[in-house]
Amino acid sequence: MSALQIRVFPGTYRDSLLLLSATRAMRDESGVSWAAAVMATPANVEDLAGRGVSAADLDGADANALVLAVQARGAAAADAALQRGHDALFAGESGASAEPGRPEPQSISEAAARLPEANVAVVSVPGPYAAITAHQALTAGLHVLLFSDNVPMADEVTLKERASRLGRLVMGPGAGTAMLGGVGLGFANVVRPGRVGVVAAAGTGAQEVMALLDRWEIGVSCVIGVGGRDLSSGVGGLMAADAVRMLDNDPGTDVILLVSKPPDPAVARRVIGASEHTAVIAACLGMPVLDGLPGEVPLAATLEEGVLLVARSLGMPVPDLGEGLADAVEAALARTGGARGAVRGFFTGGTLCYEAQVVLSRSLGPVYSNIPFRPDLGLPAPPGAHVCLDLGEEEYTRGRPHPMIDPSARREIMREQAGGGEVAVVLLDVVLGYGSHPDPAGEIADTCAGLVARGAAVVAYVLGTDGDPQDFGAQRRTLRETGAIVTQTSAQAARVAAAIAGRRPDLATASP
Question: In sequence order, what are the residues at sequence separation of 6 or more whose Cβ sits closer than 8 angstroms to the Cβ of residue 58?
Answer without folding.
Answer: 6, 8, 40, 45, 48, 65, 67
